[in-house]
Target: Huntington interacting protein HYPE
Amino acid sequence: MQPQYILTDKMLNRVVGISELTALLVLEKRALHLRKENRIRSIQSSLAIENNSLTLEQVTDIIDGKRVLGAPKEIHEVQNAYEAYERVFQLNPYRVDDFLRAHRLLTKDLVKRSGQFRAGDVGVYDSQGTVVHVGARPQFVPKLVQDLFEWAEKSTLPDLIKSCIVHFELEIIHPFEDGNGRMGRLWQSLILYQWQDIFEWIPVETVIYEHQQTYYDSLSLSNHQNDATIFIEFMLDAILETLQEYSLKEKSDKMSDKELLYFKLLEKYLKKHGVIASRDFQNLSNLSPSAARRYLTRFTDLGLLVKKGQNRNRQYQLRQDLS
Ligand SMILES: Nc1ncnc2c1ncn2[C@@H]1O[C@H](COP(=O)(O)OP(=O)(O)OP(=O)(O)O)[C@@H](O)[C@H]1O
Model:
């Protein structure tokens, strides 16, 4: 099999941006304490995409073994997903057996053919109940998945791009009765983890959930064009955004509420205008000249801003990987 896609400038730029930010996070050995919280965010978001209504707090309580009032099926989905995410990163992303094992973990006691490819046809429906995609005929599914994994294992593409293609092709094949979205997202995380192990803890699913309609639209467009390009670009954007949010969250944990407020104001301005001088920040924030300068210095020290120019010509911009 040879998936169809075009390598675009946008993809290459995203790959560079993601690689830089990942290297920085690895180097700084970021936030081990955030691991569990991030895992919970991944699970809650991936389940929310498939309409599980449990909140982040409820998901946290379930995982902590507390009693939660909710639909038993939804609670069971959380418990299964937690188990799957705990064990999936030891699996081989190019082995069909491992793929089925992960599906079994994710859907145990919830679907009839848990851990097995489907035996009948399957459709994907939009919110109006219209069929938007029909999966491959069931008799072809095992071979299609096998071929996809063989292609992926041999491919010399960067893992970042490869993981998006595998996610896309899995949705096109739609190998299971249920759980195809969750499995596609989980399998992409596993391939990303093989590239850089911090991806075990990076909740890309949350950004997909925040852009759920664009996720569906890009799947649909790529599907119609029989070419993964649009979907790859969407996913690389989502990965970059996740890393940027992660990086910012880390830094914002070190800021006071007041600092956070002024930084948000500044960030909005810089995303529009690119650079800011101390005097402009002073006008924007109504701070005194010395307070404005103090905040700019603090944000620079935190690594959120970089300085350009000297003395009276000094300006500030967002660190490149955050803009
Ligand atoms: N037009 C489309 N073509 C191909 N795949 C699509 C399309 N629209 C959505 N999908 C994929 O199908 C998934 C839904 O399939 P399925 O219901 O089997 O998965 P799920 O994990 O049970 O639910 P969900 O994916 O909603 O979490 C979506 O999450 C998405 O990944």
